[in-house]
Automatic annotation (TrEMBL):
Lineage of the species this protein comes from: Bacteria, Bacillati, Actinomycetota, Actinomycetes, Micromonosporales
Organism: Micromonospora rifamycinica
Protein's name according to its UniProt entry: Heme chaperone HemW
GO annotation terms (biological process): porphyrin-containing compound biosynthetic process
Chief subcellular location: cytoplasm
Alphabetical keyword list: 4Fe-4S, Chaperone, Cytoplasm, Heme, Iron, Iron-sulfur, Metal-binding, S-adenosyl-L-methionine
Length: 414
């Protein structure tokens, strides 16, 4: 399928032990920021848990007496201080992008989100044109909080709309009313945000074609300049998966998801949006999410917060998941890193092919070996790659190719 809802996995992978002080190999330190440097900040709190959610998030009831929102900013600032010690004399050239995700970051007071951004600026320095994004649920922001965030330096907001249909929101256990996301988008524009994204999920059981069409209409009318649209994936262990196992809801249909994707492309293209990644559309080049582009082009980023992933100079690591354990490690002066891996050249090549092929800019054919080039030739013959870009040395997916992106990737890799 062209796009799936993704975030930090519910189960962290295995890897080698992270040193207690978080030290990185010299080879990694020497390469910091060569392709750009970003900061991801994870806020793991939610007011309630959505039925499809497998992300590293916690409600107040799930945390019990553990670390809560009140002390969270101070705990993250402690990890930021540790990160500064790890990079030491080889800091990044400046921070190009910051992305605050969750969870629901805007459950933290706006002043705390401002303080965290200030901490990043004081530690490494924000580039003059830095993109600073926070995710938010539509019901978790107000005109006043949005103005505070904008004054603090946040330039972009990503609102979890998911759908404009009440029935779809109910199946997903979303608590905002239909229409609230569009209102919040307009409030963010009024507060001075440069860029506003609305997230959509398609293929939810019970969703009708006209429901998705109405969602797209609301996105366009709200004045958002970026849209992310993902096919619903049912993760084991979620409430939605349990309902489907019991037969209360049907499983998502790949055919329906493909129809929804084609509908999104048609509606957004007509409204002046262009796709730049399989699941992402923007009105202008300036509206593209630069932070996600760092991920997709192999740049470096430091992930702050429980369960957050980082990548610096070919070393990838991930923090312990639970906020209490995370805070305890930092209070002891230890890295919160649970495990890490040093990527091999073959692994980096595989990831580069997988991610760059999903971009509208495509993958340089020179990056492929003979077997991969033969696979690209087959994809071209099958109408999955753009025949105009191909002679110019790039593999760029056609619309049909976007529907079969995963299959194309498999044919380009050994």
């Amino acid at each position: 399928m062209p796009g799936t809802l993704v975030a930090m996995p519910g189960v962290l992978p295995d890897g080698e032990t992270v040193p207690v002080d978080g030290a990185l190999p010299g080879t990694a330190l020497r390469a910091v920021g060569e392709r750009g440097f970003g900061v991801y900040l994870h806020v793991p709190f939610c007011a309630s848990r959505c039925g499809y959610c497998d992300f590293n998030t916690y409600t107040a009831a799930e945390l019990g007496g553990g670390v809560g929102r009140e002390s969270y900013a101070d705990t993250v600032l402690a990890e930021l201080a540790l990160a500064a010690r790890v990079l030491g004399d080889t800091p990044p050239p400046r921070v190009d992008t910051v992305f605050v995700g969750g969870g629901t970051p805007t459950l933290l007071p706006a002043d705390d989100l401002a303080r965290l951004l200030d901490g990043i600026d004081r530690t490494w320095g924000l580039a003059a044109d830095a993109e600073v994004t926070t995710e938010a649920n539509p019901e978790s922001v107000t005109p006043g909080s949005l103005k505070t965030l904008r004054a603090a330096g946040y330039t972009r907001i990503s609102l979890g709309m998911q759908s404009a249909a009440a029935g779809v929101l109910a199946v997903l256990d979303r608590t905002h009313r239909p229409g609230r996301a569009a209102e919040a988008a307009r409030e963010a524009r009024d507060a001075g945000f440069d860029h506003v994204n609305l997230d959509l999920i398609y293929g939810t059981p019970g969703e009708r074609a006209e429901d998705f069409a109405a969602s797209l209409d609301q996105v366009v009318a709200a004045g958002a300049d970026h849209v992310s649209a993902y096919a619903l994936i049912v993760e084991d262990g979620t409430r939605l998966a349990a309902r489907m196992r019991r037969g209360e809801l049907p499983y998502p249909s790949d055919d329906v998801a493909a129809d929804r994707y084609l509908a999104a492309e048609a509606a957004l293209d007509a409204a002046g949006f262009s796709w730049y990644e399989v699941s992402n559309w923007a009105r202008t080049e300036a509206a593209r999410c630069r932070h996600n582009l760092l991920y997709w082009t192999g740049a470096d980023w430091w992930g702050l917060g429980p369960g957050a992933h980082s990548h610096v100079g070919g070393v990838r690591w991930w923090n312990v998941k639970h906020p209490t354990t995370y805070a305890q490690r930092l209070a002891a002066g230890h890295s919160p890193g649970l495990a890490r891996e040093v990527l091999t050249p073959d692994e980096m090549h595989t990831e580069d092919v997988m991610l760059r092929l999903r971009l509208a800019s495509g993958l340089p054919l020179a990056a492929l070996d003979d077997a991969g080039r033969a696979g690209a030739d087959r994809a071209l013959a099958a109408g999955l790659l753009d025949p105009v870009a191909y002679p110019r040395g790039r593999a760029v997916l056609t619309l049909r190719g976007r529907l079969l992106a995963d299959a194309v990737v498999r044919d380009l890799l050994p």
